[in-house]
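Following up on my earlier thread - several people asked me to post the actual chain instead of describing it. Fair enough. Here it is, all 213 residues.
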Amino acid sequence: MNWEAVTALSTAFTGLVIAVTAFAAFRELRLSAEHAAASRDHLKQLQLATQFEGVRAVFDELDSPQQVEARRFVITQLAVRMRDPKFRAEIARVGAVDETAHPELQVLRCFERFAYYLKKGYVDPDVFYNVASGRVLVMWALLEEVVAIQREVLGRPWINFEQLERDTRAWCEEHEIFGAVSSGVTKQILEEYRQLRHGPDPADAAPAAATVP
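Reply from S.P.:
Thanks for posting it. Predicted structure:
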């Protein structure tokens, strides 16, 4: 038997096996990479679809008649109602409050939910801040006293809304969108609220019309 020939054939066969194995491994790696890329693309599409649905749900609620009227109550009536000890005591009851008599709590719950959606990535932040930044900042400013009353008896409720206000303000500053913070409408709303909260009792006067942000 020609052992040199056998050795040569064995070496050639071994090389062939190594080459086939390497090719198979390379093909597997390529397929894995393609699969991973397709999975990432699919997940991205799902995320975009989820964010689209999230944005639509957010603005459907934000522009709903119930929320528009609740924000109108906060702007035009809350300051005066906050002078009433009975009204303030009801706020302190937290979960036992009748929200039909306290629309300000509807606003708090609404923005608390929005903050949670943003934190979980269900809503695109840029889209939300572009459209709703003014409403976030104004509502938090007008509702801080309500939040403070509830925190005296319940730790720190509304922390998501509080963080949303900070994030919104930071986003506005980063993108140099100062209108939401210092526009004439915003200043007017806050100034009128302060006057109603601390000024003469306007109980006999009809509530002034106000632009609801």
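The first helix runs from residue 3 to 62. That should answer part of your original question.
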